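This part of the workshop introduces the protein records we will be handling. To make this concrete, we reproduce a full record directly below:
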Amino acid sequence: MPAKSLETRAAETLRLDKALANAFPDVSRARFQALIAEGAVRVEGVPVREPRHKVKPGEALCVLLPEPAEPGPGPEAMKLSIAYEDKDLIVIDKPAGLVVHPGAGNETGTLVNALISHCGESLSGIGGVKRPGIVHRLDKDTSGLIVVAKNDRAHHGLSEQFAAHGRDGRLERSYLAIVWGVPERQSGSIAASIGRSTANRQKMAVSRSTSARQAITHYGLLETLGRPPVASLIRCRLETGRTHQIRVHMAHAGHPLLGDQVYGSGFRSSTTKLSEASKAALKALNRQALHAATLGFDHPISGKPMRFESPAPADIGTLLEALRLNVTEQ
């Protein structure tokens, strides 16, 4: 791929990565760190592979910045539900069933393919060949809001906010979920580290392993469903962003998501408590009952607070209505 050269001279004594980030604010420091490690940065004509290398005032710095490689599958025209778009970012209301980025078994038909078609070459290259512009992700069968960066500067600003997970007040992410049973408390927090399951490497699990990562989910009960209650509608807010976090945590708490074939298989017998209408609605859902309903962040360039809401899609709405009317014998 063709590359362009960025050249400057150090203004003061600084770490190499910081000096470059200061000189070229449209490219993130993380991007420069990766380029340094790849040997794409020279100081006084000599390749330097250590981001912490101290440069001196007046030293010549040169970066070979390759253009983002085109993902193998290429652009694919698809209809996108766009909640917001400007020159720096785009917010998509993702339908269930759409994979976010290409991977094994999903080389085509992904959100990334659609975005390449829609945005052209403007997507940020930080995510690499398979994930241009992607700052965070949603599972294939989770619907709802996702934000994508169109340039490296926006990517860097959004990534900082997602790394803080809302602790600094900038990022807001909440999900609607339908779970089996009724939580003992109307609101609470689940703090349990998550790692790869030792029994099934395709699954995540609550774990005490040293490789497991801290995970915290806050939940609040919105509505009990059925007479007597057989399920609940809850709102979950993430303080961390681990793979399958809500699904793993709610199953760990004894309230797995309806329709979750991976983490809710132990609750299949609970379907005997459902009316025929509820069973039909759950079968039609054919996925975990999880929807990314709220997404808020500060615009990575202007700093303006932004907030988006997505109502529950039709399949979850149909299931909710059926469960509200669900009556079983005491």
Remarks:
- The chain has a mean pLDDT of 90.
